[in-house]
Write a structure and sequence with these properties.
Beta-Lactamase, 8-stranded parallel β-barrel, binds magnesium ion, Enzyme I, Chain A, domain 2, 28 helices, Glucose Oxidase, domain 1, binds phosphoenolpyruvate, alpha/beta, single chain
């Protein structure tokens, strides 16, 4: 069964269009189960009716024509119950509806399973048979599994209008709206540029080309380059390898003969596919052939085909990259958008980001916020192959992407952008004014920093200190650990730029979703694994070099150095880290430098630290909440997983209770409490946090002026009242509604994002 299932999923994936995919599917299922009929009914939401979308075994003339009301017949019952219905004789069932046109009457046995995506029924997959019998459990399980796997394909098609197009023949182009989550606030209108990870055949998107000659040429150059490489390697090893090993290179060269792989790829290019896509298709087909071979030696040759494919791909991508063109207002769209991809595009060209994976608190979303570029994350259904070069609106407030917006929608968005720009210009006047509530309470607004360029942006926006320096970013841009001196210089640049303001340096926080290419950590469960302080305490040499560099960088400056420890889950870690920092300090003093003892603080990022906040506070100089991780660990919601992004809520009552407890615990020990998670930079978060008594809010530079505006227009008394009310509520949705209304009532409606109509 598993083999049949795989085969069907592969055949469907290889189909050239949605319509063809459905046709392939019904034929394959009918064959695999040996039934006489297989049909797919899809829901057309615009009409609220089922469409007879594909079939094998009934009257084919009605495909794409015949429709059923949403509550009609057995198909309607399957959708209503969102459960399979398995009947020995469908004709006896009260919900059976006799439909003379499509010719169902001779078929008695009926099995219908719903196709469900994100809790929504999209359609029904049906098999039928003449003989009166119940389908057995394994047949039912097979169909349920298949329907679950197909749901994504159908959801894509529903979103792109291809389901509707099955009737009308046209894919509606205007206003295709895809949902994700807001990754970085703001609205951008621009042209889609698709990005994908390099040297990964599976990641290559299908793309049509209108310049076949050029694609053929690029392909030939790449193949020739690989041939030359292989000849060179073969000559190099000529003397040292046995003859049978050397013969392998000949096999490679044969595979690259014009009549072999390259011939097939050229045929695909001539049909209009770009070179990389054609290569991917051909290599996939060859791999499948090899996988099916019985002979283990031949089976192994699949690896050679893959290797060759990759070699050619690298050259193809190289030639592309050199002349990658980014239009004005580029909207970067990719399955995964990585910080490295952002670095490849001139910043003045980048208008917006859309990632199919990831979530609002993924690293790239955090970077987008600090660059002030609107981003939507986890927009799983965006059809990458179909949006290239299209006009796209990225609504980072609402987490929506609109492809081919109509003129009316564009006008509405342009109006929102103009209002936003006006507001930003107004905010510039606040730069040198204090962040103080209307009843005179001072709140310290600091910045989170990591990217080069962040320093000027932060100072321009009136940051009063650095609340979080993500030191892993300079580590990520190297191909080995940076030396003490290299680190010292980077830290010093920040400290002198901010002098005499306080600078909070976090010790290296790798693991989880933050990897160093030269120090790979492979784990099944990385967010619960070797992360943050756990790594650096196991490698005291890395920790000592880093903290020595921080302490040295502060030499002779008036600004306060605060060293902050990530991922602390117990007091022993703090004691050990403190001992090492003291040793680093002493060593630097012994080298004759005039350095102050740094302050030491703990990040509260895991639930254990919330419950031990007082014990931790007693041992250090300050506490700082990392609400991004704290929310993830309290709610057991992966901060990068779009499937659960709707559950990731900092306003969840459990998170809010924890935040209040940390503030109280720190203050009970007489220690200042800050927060440097993204929540601090949101209007709801800032108001609730000051009401809870947080001393420092640290956020990205982009959000800082708007949060200052909120604070300057809000009284501490009112913020406290809101906290008291919110802490009595038990549903995050209610809390959001309440906060939204409160901000509007307080005259702060401008920071409550508005949707276009
Ligand atoms: C946090 O977890 O809230 C935090 C500030 O750290 P990071 O986002 O870098 O994990
Ligand atoms: Mg964290």
């Amino acid at each position: 069964m598993l083999g049949a299932l795989r085969q069907i999923v592969n055949d469907v994936a290889d189909a050239g269009s949605f319509r063809e995919a459905l046709n392939v599917l019904v034929v394959d299922v009918q064959e695999a189960l040996g039934t006489e009929v297989c049909s797919i009914y899809l829901i057309n939401r615009a009409r609220d009716r089922f469409l007879f979308a594909a079939n094998e075994g009934l009257n084919q003339d009605y495909i794409g024509q015949f429709t059923l009301a949403i509550d009609e017949g057995l198909v309607g019952l399957v959708a209503e119950r969102a459960q399979p219905i398995n009947l020995k004789n469908a004709l006896d069932h009260p919900r059976f509806r006799y439909l003379p046109q499509i010719g169902e009457e001779p078929f008695h046995a009926f099995l219908g399973v719903p196709i469900i995506h994100h809790r929504n029924v999209l359609g029904v997959l049906v098999v039928q048979q003449r003989e009166e019998r119940r389908f057995d459990e394994s047949e039912e399980a097979f169909l349920v599994t298949l329907a679950a796997q197909l749901a994504t394909l159908i959801a894509h098609a529903a979103a792109t209008g291809e389901v509707v197009a099955l009737t009308s023949g046209d894919v509606p182009r205007e206003n295709q709206v895809y949902r994700g989550v807001g990754g970085s606030p703001g609205i951008a209108i621009g042209t889609a540029v698709i990005v994908h990870p390099l040297a990964d055949l599976n990641a290559v998107p299908e793309r049509e080309t209108d310049n076949i000659i050029q694609e053929l040429l690029i392909f030939d150059v790449a193949v020739e380059a690989v041939r030359a490489d292989i000849r060179r390697i073969s000559e190099q090893f000529g003397g040292s390898l046995p003859a049978e090993e050397l013969a392998l290179f000949d096999v490679y060269l044969h595979m690259l003969d014009d009549t072999a792989i390259p011939g097939d790829v050229r045929d695909r290019i001539r049909l209009g596919q770009w070179a990389q896509g054609a290569l991917k298709q051909v290599i996939r087909e060859h791999l499948r052939t090899f996988e099916q071979m019985e002979d283990p030696y031949l089976k192994e040759r699949g690896a050679d085909v893959k290797d060759l494919g990759l070699r050619v791909l690298v050259y193809l991508q190289d030639s592309r990259q050199k002349k990658q063109f980014f239009p004005e207002n580029t909207i970067l769209i990719g399955e995964d958008v990585t910080p490295g991809m952002l670095a490849n595009i001139p910043s003045e060209k980048l208008a917006g980001i859309v990632a199919l994976r990831g979530s609002g608190n993924s690293h790239v979303a955090i970077l987008a916020r600090s660059l002030g570029v609107p981003a939507v994350m986890g927009a799983l259904d965006v059809p990458l192959y179909a949006v290239e070069n299209s006009v796209v609106v990225v609504d980072g407030f609402y987490g929506e992407v609109n492809v081919h917006p109509s003129k009316r929608v564009l006008d509405q968005y342009r109006e929102l952008i103009a209002e936003e720009e006006e507001f930003v210009a107004e905010l510039e006047t606040l730069r040198d004014l204090p962040s103080e509530t209307t009843d005179g309470a001072r709140v310290r607004l600091w910045v989170n920093i990591g990217l080069a360029g962040d320093i000027t942006r932060s100072l321009d926006r009136g940051a009063e200190g650095i609340g979080l320096f993500r030191t892993e970013v300079p580590f990520m841009t190297k191909d080995r650990f940076p030396t003490e001196e290299e680190q010292r210089q980077i830290y010093r640049d920040h400290m002198t730029a901010f002098e005499p303001r306080p600078v909070t340096m976090r010790t290296l926080d790798i693991g989880g979703d933050k990897a160093l290419s030269y120090f790979p950590i492979e784990e099944d469960n990385p967010f619960l694994g070797w992360r943050g302080i756990r790594v650096t305490l196991d490698h005291p040499e890395i920790f000592l070099i880093q903290t020595r560099a921080m302490i040295k960088a502060n030499a002779g400056l008036r600004g306060l150095l605060r060293i902050m420890l990530p991922m602390i889950s117990g007091v022993a870690e703090v004691e050990e880290a403190t001992r090492l920092i003291m040793r680093a300090h002493q060593e630097v003093c012994e080298e004759g430098l005039d350095v102050k003892r740094p302050q030491i603080g703990v990040m509260i990022e895991v639930p254990a630290a919330v419950y031990q906040a007082r014990a931790l506070a007693r041992r250090v100089d300050f506490l700082a909440v990392g609400s991004n991780d704290l929310t993830q660990y309290m709610l057991a919601v992966d901060r990068n997983n779009p499937r659960v992004a709707n559950l990731y809520k900092e306003v969840h009552p459990a998170v809010l209770q924890a935040l209040r407890e940390v503030a109280q615990a720190g203050h009970a020990e007489g220690k200042p409490v800050g927060i440097c998670g993204e929540f601090a930079g949101t209007p709801f978060g800032a108001v609730l946090l000051i009401g809870m008594g947080y001393d420092v809010l640290s956020m990205n530079a982009t959000n800082l002026p708007r949060i200052k505006w909120v604070i300057r227009n809000m009284s501490m008394a009112r913020a406290r009242r809101m906290v008291a009310k919110v802490l009595k509520m038990d549903d995050p949705a209610r809390i959001e509604e309440f906060m939204q209304q409160e901000l509007i009532d307080a005259g702060l409606g401008r920071v409550v994002p508005r949707h276009h109509e």
